[in-house]
Write a structure and sequence with these properties.
16% strand, 42% helix, 7-stranded parallel β-sheet, 273 residues, globular
Length: 273
């Protein structure tokens, strides 16, 4: 939702997220505690959270934060299980996305992790520009491994390699996961892939065959990162991902009827796109 120019009413957001909660996903990225000036679409996250009924769902809630102040706000809600922070391999994108230097972002990660530990939350770190960037900043598998080692040393347990601008290819994805997953067995690695209809399957297959079992997606492939550039590359479509994983025998535990209701509702919610 964050990249859409027209504000989606709070009640519409809440109803859509409530439907997603009925499907049975593991985690729902439901909102962001970030500056309303930076991301006006999600300025009503607290109101949306207040309107959700969590009494009949197994799905855990994740909120994105961009700084320690947002993390403290998110951590104050007992309904939220995960806080997500985008730590960028690219200094340029770190500044564009959270208005921080790499040193400031790293310090925030350490403080956020400590905050999460105190409040019984789990910090998910997204390694933005994890597969390269368009800014000319240094990138290499070794650099990604260094970032990961630093996070693992802090005690971070979930790291999602993030293809923020659709730069990933199977030739980049597979070696990274094949190197990182056995090197850091205490870390659960995820794939946050911004893809196109022509690239999604090869990229998902590369990550899956390399051992990744945590994937982010959005119904219809809607969305992207508004801080990455003018042309948004869509998210990985949930329906594509579900089909791929089911075809490989993964027991996803999703309610098929509720999933179809969510897909139908998404057509209405995102008709403003």
């Amino acid at each position: 939702m964050q990249g859409l120019p027209e504000f989606i009413p709070t009640a519409t957001k809440t109803a859509y997220l409530q439907q997603l909660l009925a499907v049975g996903f593991d985690v729902l990225d439901f909102g962001s505690f970030v500056s309303p000036k930076a991301i006006p679409q999600l300025r009503d996250t607290a109101e949306v959270l207040a309107g959700l009924d969590l009494s009949h769902t197994k799905t855990k809630l994740l909120a994105i934060v961009a700084n320690l102040r947002g993390a403290a706000q998110a951590a104050s809600y007992p309904e939220i299980s995960y806080l997500g922070f985008p730590l960028s391999v690219s200094p340029t994108f770190q500044h564009r996305n959270t208005n921080q230097t790499p040193a400031q972002a790293r310090a925030d990660v350490a403080a956020m992790h400590a905050l999460c530990e105190r409040h019984g939350k789990t910090l998910v770190v997204y390694l933005s520009m994890g597969f390269g960037n368009p800014y000319g900043d240094p990138w290499s598998p070794a650099l990604v491994a260094d970032f990961t080692a630093e996070l693992a040393a802090l005690g971070i347990r979930i790291v999602a390699l993030s293809d923020t601008v659709g730069a990933a290819t199977p030739a980049l994805i597979a070696p990274l996961f094949e190197e990182l997953i056995p090197a850091f067995p205490q870390v659960a690695f995820g794939a946050h892939l911004h893809t196109t209809p022509a690239t999604w399957q090869a990229n998902v297959q590369a990550a899956y065959e390399a051992g990744c079992r945590r994937f982010d997606s959005a119904l219809g492939g809607i969305g992207g990162c508004p801080m990455a550039g003018d042309a948004l590359t869509g998210n990985l479509a949930t329906e594509d991902l579900v089909g791929f994983l089911a075809g490989r025998g993964e027991a996803l535990g999703l309610d098929a009827a509720q999933f179809e209701r969510a897909r139908a509702l998404s057509q209405t919610v995102f008709s403003v796109a």
